[in-house]
Amino acid sequence: MSQSQKSPVLAYQASQESPFEADRNLYCKIGKTASKELVESFVLPIRSGRAWKVPRGHLCKITTPEGPQVGDLNIWNFDNPRERFWAARTRQIHRSHVTRFDRLWSCLPYLRPMVTITGDSLTEYGVDEVGGRVHDLLGTRCDPYVNQLMTGEGFDYHCHSNLTRAILPYGLTEFDVHDVLNLFQVTGLNKDGKYFMQPSPATPGDFFEFFAEIDILCALSTCPGGDLSSWGWDKKDEADPMLKCCRPLGVEMYKITDPNVLEKWEPPAPAQYNGLHGITLPVFPN
């Protein structure tokens, strides 16, 4: 094999014992347990947002009850919203499109798994004929600012705005909205390294499930592009071709009722870096 044909060296490789690698036996047990109680469920209407708390040790399932629909997900530490989901580091540690046993990591200086993915009905999607994969970390949320720049028009129901409205009751603002996990969204990079999107492959009943490692606040937006089969920034007339592609998302939260299921689980602590980043205090003569 020539030098040009060799596989590149992965930038982030860790031992099986590191926190980057979820204990598959444990999370299989958690994801498959029948000893759980439904404690909350709701349906998120099209082009809307909602936030909710998921206590640590609970399961949360996001579903496509009526068929394909993209959802933009944000996560914060419920007790300290400065700790929030870090899409870029998660992408480096795991992959550009996440699935079962991957973990969603928090920002510095905390750097710990906020959730571990325990279920994904689209795990077999793999890589399509143009290089697309599902559950995207490459891109981020749609927003009214880029819409204004691209079309000269505003729109109040992009995912950024939906998430902003959703978190207001929790004392958070637009400045707390961050890069998202695009659920049920197929994306990739073309031969020129440019970002593309494909229609969502989800069908009625597909789901994405995760286990909360700490108390978290989640916020979810039903993307105004719906399943992305008619995505576009510029409307040619008063009709909105994307509207017919929009569907609701479902959310279910479960409490695990058998303590034996969580017997070997412990909530993760923040990364134990205790240095001062090379900062030293000046020493003054007496």
Describe the protein in words.
Helices cover 12% and strands 29% of the residues. The protein contains four helices and 13 strands.
The level of helicity is 10-25%
**Computed Rg:** 20 Å
Q: State the secondary-structure class.
A: mainly beta
Task: Determine the mean pLDDT.
Answer: 94
Characterize the largest beta sheet: strand count, sense, and whether it forms a barrel. Answer: 7 strands, antiparallel
Relevant terms:
12% helix; 286 residues; 4 helices; globular; seven-stranded antiparallel β-sheet; single chain; mainly beta
Question: How is the secondary structure organized here?
Answer:
Layout: H1 24-32, E1 36-44, E2 49-54, E3 58-64, E4 71-77, E5 80-84, H2 87-93, E6 103-105, E7 113-120, E8 133-136, H3 144-151, H4 159-167, E9 181-189, E10 195-198, E11 206-212, E12 216-222, E13 249-256
Antiparallel strand pairs: 1-13, 2-12, 3-11, 3-13, 4-5, 4-9, 4-12, 6-7, 7-11, 8-9, 9-10
